[in-house]
Amino acid sequence: MSSDEQPAAPRSLAEALRAQDDAFLAALLRGRPDLITPLPGDLTQLATRAGTRASVVRALERLDRFALQTAEALAVAGEPATYAELLVLMAGDERDPAVVDALPRAVATLRAQALVWGGDSRLRLVRTARELLSPSPQHPSPTGLGPTVQEAAAGMSPGRIQTIVATAGLRSTPDGVSAVAALTALFSDRERMSELLAGLPYDSLDVLDRLVWGPPYGQVTHDPAPRLRLLLDRGLLLPTAPGTVVLPREVALHLRGGRAHRTPEPVPPPVEAAGVHAPQTADATAAGQAYLALATVEELLQHWDEGGPAVLRAGGLSVRDLKRTANALDVPEPEAAFWIELAYAAGLLASDGEADERYAATPEYDVWRELPAPQRWAQLAEAWLTGTRTPGLIGGRDAKDRALTALGPGLDRSSAAEVRHRVLTLLARLPAGVAPAVESLLARLRWERSSRGPQQEGDLRERLARWTLAEAERLGVTGRGALGAPGRALIGEPLGPPAPEEPAADADGVPAGPGDKLPVRHRPPAEAQPLTPAEQAAAAEEAARVLAPLMPEPVDHVLLQADLTAVAPGPLERPLADLLGVLADVESKGGATVYRFTPGSVRRALDSGRTASDLQSLLAAHSRTPVPQPLAYLIDDVARKHGHLRIGTATAYVRSDDDALLDEILADRRSEGLRLRRLAPTVAATQVTPAVLLEGLRAMGHAPAAESPDGDVLIARTDSHRTPPRTPPEPVPEGPPLPDATLLGAAVRAIRAGDEAATTPRPPAPQPQAEGDLPRTSPAETLASVQAAVLTGESLWLGYVNAEGTASRRVVAPIRVEGGYVTAYDHTADEVRKFSLHRVTGVADLPEE
Predict the structure, then answer these.
(1) What is the Cα–Cα distance from 214 to 367, expressed in whole angstroms?
(2) Domain residues of the chain, as ranges?
(3) Model-level pTM greater than 0.90?
(4) Are strands 683-686 and 840-845 parallel, antiparallel or unpaired?
(5) pLDDT tens for each residue of 564-614
(6) For the domain bounded by 779-845, which CATH number is listed?
(7) What does 282-298 look like in DSSP terms, one character per residue?
(8) Pairwise CA distance, residues 542 & 489, whole Å
């Protein structure tokens, strides 16, 4: 193809996007989903939205460190820059091979995110990104570079500039502009700069060394020292304000060897091993933790079966109730908060919504309990992985200094799900059985997402990663720090041996040990996205299938012991687990659960409608050892007393066939608070409620039973209180949701159609000849022409109707287009003004002179 046939270089981002194929546009909309809401009408609108400040900030925050360093280098390069200039800024004069190899990927990433456009000979960083990344006294550049000679000398007098030119050994020039150009050419010439610096004393060079990597600004007195005077006279330091000097960018780049960054980071940091275990050991440990997680959640919800703690007025659980729950579960309070939030995220726990609002199990809990153990675990793990509620924040305070409580508001963090998924993905890249060193894992995460936002945002991501590692171990996603097989399936990772580039041993066949650096494949951001809801549900089913053979089989028996305990040698089948959950109290948990029988637990079983003979026969049927005599005596003894006293409503009454027993109660000083009054030899009444009377008599050592108005014994079931049907809390997404393939295809087709309609050739707009003859162009043509004029620096005719309805035509030089306004220098009024785009009738090129 001849030079005449070469396609013209795009003049704007819209033209660059217009030259791309549909696959590129679909990838752009997926990588920056904020651009699709609402759907742009054409490619010009898409380009405009891609250049808005909010969208560019979000795109920059999602870049990895090297891609961000590349964008920072382009921000201090010329406009436009060539790929060769960028390579020097990134790799330096030494041409670091790692940087040379990684730079094409970084530029491709920036192009794919529409942050950079143009060919390798004319690379342009979008204007908003350049403004955000360019250095200034108010916003120092991450590169540590200061302004150019031209920018720094803008406020200097022409005479002072000529003096600097002469002192630097250059010929005098006719004007200040050419003098600045000559000084810039000198500082950009490596050979002449080396000669200039060779003539400086050591203490002057020491000043430059202290400023070379930033910050480039320094303070000087009214009468600078000789070492500073030498630098000022030669323009190696330029004044920017009274008492302030700056090291020009060209001088700093020469001293740096051409590099924009002190330490380019083209390669993600390796993840180091903290421990290496056999994969079977890690899987077995994870399965054991998964079993313990199910037991803990069941214990929690059984503890709240009859109605849990009250809901605070502002929502959430009180600190006192959290402490009581932690004591009941025999775990630290942060861990108890995690289990409570996990049950809530899985839809097993909610508030009942009644007048005296309390927390309780939902109807979904009863369905969940009947599922096989692997499916129950998968439901919990999926809720944890995709949820945005963050239990680690509990106990802290929000931005308004309000306490953050379990189950309360303010715990959602939109980045939680993404961080959890990414941490598990990095663990999946390691060989099976390898646990990572935490700090190396955090360093990798910091490289992958170099946050440019507030410091607390980066700190939150780091804390989320630490919480993820602890919660994954607690839940059984990891075992001994290594990702287990069910955890790999949960995030949709294929099971099997590590890939060839991820060896679990060195070249001599020695397994990797603690501290060894293990390769972790770098996946492009698009590949590392969390799964869609449908994909996640399928992954959870696969995780349950993988976990099933690892979990212990449910057993149908216990071992009764003479010390009033029963040992369950594994997870119990549901009927036996329900029986022991009522008849005994859990004393210790683990691979083997120990239950203890007490008078209170036996009375609880009798209250649920069981008889002594029922209990004895059930225990005998499910025990591999004979029922010990102490346990038989305990059951019989509690049963003999159970029901001798009957509680009803009078407000309340107590009756007994044994009038001597009533005499004993009335004579007991502990019954004074119950205010009992005898109505008959076998009946006494009180003003307290039946529940208070029941608890009071039980505290005195009796075993009363409640009865109905018909005189029948009331059976108290532990699962009697349930909330109305509740839906689990919806995750709070980080930004707009990711569009699926169907939506992306439809969006691209719609944008293409709108762009074709907007760019269909129309008859050229006539040049305005008279005062009332305004240029007329479509909104899309107006926006495209103004954006092109911003890049080229050209002036245009602009037709404008102000708020009073007065029409005028003006000659303007557009400076910036943003937020529905065009900022331009108005030659007619000789000032910079803002024009509302919706009031512009059209634009036209100025006639050539």
Answers:
(1) 63
(2) 10-133, 149-221+237-255, 277-498+513-550, 559-641, 645-706, 779-845
(3) no
(4) unpaired
(5) 999 988 788 877 877 887 888 888 876 678 889 999 888 888 887 788 888
(6) 2.30.30.100
(7) HHHHHHHHHHHHHHHHH
(8) 6
